[in-house]
Specification:
34% strand, alpha+beta, Pnp Oxidase, Chain A, 225 residues
Amino acid sequence: MPPTGAAPYPPTPRTTPSRSRERVSYDRELVHAILDAGYLCHLSFVRDGAPAVLPTLYARDGERLYVHGSTGSRPLRTAAAPDPEPGLPVALAVTHVDGLVLARSAFHHSINYRSVVVHGTARPVTDAAEKDRALDALVDGVVPGRAADCRPANARELAATAVLVLDLAEVSAKVRAGGPNGVPEDSALPHWSGVLPVTTAHGAPVPADDERAPAPGYLTAYARS
């Protein structure tokens, strides 16, 4: 986390919304907290002149994001191409849904959410030590403590795995919280109004068919949380 009072991310034309501006924040601690609460992102880019989007794993390390991929995938090959230098212009989005907001009118229905959008140029990670750290961060980002409790990737697996790095420079967060909006005349309508909370739950670990040992403590604790 950045130190308390760290400078916010500077707004840019791409991170300044055209509507609901009161929900936007450039606060670093908020951005980091939203990113650290998840591990699945949607990576958008242009492929053959058309928009494309790829759901994939990510992990934050300070002011950068590591994004997982395959060396055979189109975005990873494009990012590695020296044209004129390696890099792929992208937009990356992370969203958590916290509640379904039900108003008395269809128009005012909404959702409570926390989201982050990052714009920038994703670059391939070529340094072996950095790639090892990034892959450990990606594994631990899904289940904390797992990287130290599994076999590291071998040379063949590393050759088939690619990691992109994206700097956190052009970033914004957007948050909605609270109950439904509406118009005064709707208050007398006989329809229920309020919020249906949404949470993510992890169930009890299900062992593999050939597993004989009990689930490790970090996993059972993660399921309880």
